[in-house]
Amino acid sequence: MYDEAFANATIASRKFARIAELEADFLVTALGLAPGERLLDIPCGTGRHARVFAKHGVRVTGVDLNSGLVRMAKATPTKSRGTVRYAVGDMLDLKKYRAKFDVVVNLFTSFGYFSDERKNARVLREMVSALRPGGRLAIHLIDRDWLIPRFKPVSKSSLNGVLTTEARDYDPKTKRIESRTISLDLKSGKKREYYHQTRLYSKSEMVKLFKAVGLKRIQVFGDTDGSLYKKGESSHPIYIAWKSS
After folding, report:
1. What would the pLDDT profile of 175-220 be if each residue is shown by its tens digit?
2. Is the peptide bond before 43 cis (omega within 30 degrees of 0)?
3. What is the 3-state secondary structure (H, E, C) of 229-242?
4. What percent of the chain is helix, strand and coil (3-state, nearest 5)?
5. Fewest Cβ atoms nearer than 10 Å: which of 43, 87, 94, 118?
6. How many Å apart are CA 64 and CA 66, to the nearest integer?
């Protein structure tokens, strides 16, 4: 979905960087991250979270399937107490990272990409396999029970001479949402089209998945202010759990 133009307008923008700083700072506290610990950020996108974690002295590895986003991440300077490196990789296959990390984070609703539920479950197992015994996992994603009552089939926006129209479709049987976006530069007439789909999860479904892969001490926060999850009110819950020692 993310080419350079779309990334620059969204995840690589200053607005998203400010949001990422709040999210990463919260996770440093919630996960008890200490300087020198190793963290896997997958998928890392343009590295906006990875750079914040590194500022806290964490040794970060950012992995993403999109080689263009990885190039953008590498091209962004990072001044920090920790380290950050990036690599192209597939979240379905993390065997090269087995038991190498103290923490794994999956942020910005980046879980549930696959129409095959077995693959989504495999992604979770792969992330857990990258943790050392006693390691921590954090997943941050949009909540189905919050979104569906607010679902809008079509939305439009205009910014800096670019008109963006997004059409969405939700299937209650598969619990998947599909999005088709058209971005039109009103000055040049250039049009870009994007497609995205993901599985929407409820809190109970995510907790069940966590338990199925052996994760313990599961905590569900409603927001980065540390408040607890409230059904129908928490838009993007944060799931944190521990791997057995």
Report:
1. 999 999 999 999 899 999 999 999 999 999 999 999 999 999 999 9
2. yes
3. CCCCCCCCCEEEEE
4. 30, 35, 35
5. 118
6. 5
